[in-house]
Amino acid sequence: FNADDSRLSHLASTYAGQKVSFALENQAEVRVLNYRFDGVEKMSFEIDARGKSLTASVPFVGKHLLYNIAAAVAVALSFGLAREELCREISQLKLPCMRGQIRRLGADKDDPITLWDDSYNSNPWALAMVLDAVSELRGFRRKILALGEMLELGQSSLRLHRQAGERVAQCKVDLLVTVGKNGIYIGEGAKEKGFFPEKIMHFKSSEEAAEFLVRHLGGGDFLLVKGSRSVKMERIIQKIEEKKAI
Is 115 within 8 Å of 145 (Cβ atoms)? Predict the structure, then answer.
């Protein structure tokens, strides 16, 4: 169980069976420490696993993905995998399709367009983690976000979209593109925290957003694409690849 989640920690405290905790922030049997990004395609970190320390790296970045790794290590240790096996297998991890792949496009190989394809789905927590990662990235001409609305949030939907926009305002990005009916509230939240209105574009569909981005993306730009499944944000990636591929 994730010891950084107070709700899960409470459930675990009343569970009498075997349990293993993992975390990034709080004390746990498996804890990820000292993570660092090397651009957008490598992340190094340390794992303290029941008193044993190991160092590993993976060919992708994102704090949210470290929770997945920590959970997997907790399971692996429960089945008796050795530290050497863990290090070897962690380094071989790959992301599923549309779950954070990095793509580079453009005729200029020294100054390509960098796409972060996280278009499969979105929720407030996952988006917050990705935005934290984007805020740490450096070396791009511009950082651009294409964010689709997040669905199935019930009565909290408007508030959660505005909160996502507030996080956008803290990311030091150059352009925000929002998609879908509730996506407009991401822009509203960003404006409320000082993000310039002229740097926000809203579209009803991913197709319209794709047409805009194809026209405005250039060499050296970074683009994150993320949104709920039914918004079909992958169409943005597909259109850019069609128009910008070498």
Answer: no
